[in-house]
């Protein structure tokens, strides 16, 4: 693991694989950390890619910024990380909130993007009801901590049938959620409530886009993924069977196969 100081915080990250490989930046969702991508980092580095997996500000071992952290703040952190690593362009991908950060990264730094990978995410801005929910949840996490929330949402993070069928995966996901600093989670929730509508910027994406979604995702269903596919001009969709909101953890072999096929056919290393 590596660390660097940027924009008033220390960011921790892993940098796997050959320095000459095509860089792939993978962004975790809420409330997880960089280790969510362990199955993908292993498969990609074996295939010769360079994989960067950061702990976002407020998550994992990275510093917490209390109050509110906008998706634009996360995106600018990641641009600074690429600068630090002397990476001009990367494949940028994320799951859930990480997918929205990926879309924000492209909106703010389009010249830095080789391709987008959007897993189990949605494009519209938050509704008024959603804003109220996220701010109430932020208050609750600050007051109560992460444990109760983690137990309530595990059967939405994973497909409900996978919670018992995959105890190791469920345990790993629960451990990540419970270890998250409530101040970081709350700040991200408040910032995410104010995100822009990415339906406005997706039609301008000229790079290849891979959209992945668990067939039984309770948070961002297949219809949300199909909506993104229709908006992005050069998008492909892969539905991962027997998975929910975190198909990269639930069905890593299927997820990785779709990702590697996309990278090898749509984003050649020499591009």
Number of DSSP-assigned strands: 8
Can you list the strand order of the major beta sheet?
A: 1-2-4-3-5-6-7-8
CATH architecture, by name, is: 3-Layer(aba) Sandwich
Write down the CATH topology. Rossmann fold
- Report low-confidence residues grouped into runs of 5 or more: none
The topology string of helices and strands comes to EEEHEHEHEHHHHHEHEHH
Number of alpha- plus pi-helical segments: 11
The CATH class name reads Alpha Beta
Structural class: alpha/beta
Rg calc: 17 Å
CATH superfamily: Alpha/Beta hydrolase fold, catalytic domain
Strand content: 15-25%
Question: How far from one another are the termini?
Answer: 28 Å
Question: Quick one: biggest sheet?
Answer: 8 strands, mixed
Domain AB hydrolase-1: 23-247
GO cellular component, one term: membrane
Pfam family, one: Abhydrolase_1
GO molecular function: hydrolase activity
What features would you describe in this structure?
- With 271 residues, the chain is α/β, with parallel strands linked by helices.
- The chain has one domain (2-266): Alpha/Beta hydrolase fold, catalytic domain (Rossmann fold), CATH 3.40.50.1820.
- Helix content is 45%, strand content 18%.
- Strands 1-2-4-3-5-6-7-8 form an 8-stranded mixed sheet, sandwiched between helices.
């Amino acid at each position: 693991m590596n660390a660097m100081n940027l924009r008033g915080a220390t960011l921790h990250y892993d940098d796997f694989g050959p320095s000459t490989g095509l860089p792939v930046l993978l962004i975790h969702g809420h409330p997880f950390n960089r280790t969510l991508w362990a199955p993908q980092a292993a498969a990609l580095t074996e295939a010769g890619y360079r994989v960067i997996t950061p702990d976002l500000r407020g998550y994992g071992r990275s510093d917490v910024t209390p109050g509110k952290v906008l998706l634009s703040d996360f995106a600018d952190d990641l641009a600074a990380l690429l600068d630090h690593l002397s990476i001009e362009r990367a494949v940028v991908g994320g799951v859930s909130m990480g997918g929205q950060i990926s879309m924000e990264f492209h909106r703010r730094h389009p010249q830095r993007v080789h391709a987008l990978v959007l897993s189990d995410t949605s494009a519209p801005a938050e509704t008024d009801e959603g804003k109220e929910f996220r701010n109430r949840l932020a208050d609750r996490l600050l007051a109560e901590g992460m444990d109760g929330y983690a137990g309530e949402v595990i059967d939405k993070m994973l497909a409900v049938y996978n919670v018992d069928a995959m105890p190791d995966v469920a345990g790993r996901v629960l451990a990540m959620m419970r270890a998250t600093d409530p101040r970081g989670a709350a700040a991200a929730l408040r910032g995410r409530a104010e995100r822009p509508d990415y339906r406005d910027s997706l039609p301008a994406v000229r790079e290849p886009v891979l959209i992945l979604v668990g067939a039984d995702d309770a948070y961002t269903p297949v219809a949300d993924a199909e909506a993104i596919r229709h908006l992005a001009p050069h998008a492909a969709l892969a539905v991962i069977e027997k998975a929910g909101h975190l198909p990269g953890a639930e069905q890593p072999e299927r997820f990785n196969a779709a990702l590697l096929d996309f990278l090898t056919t749509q984003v050649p290393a020499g591009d």
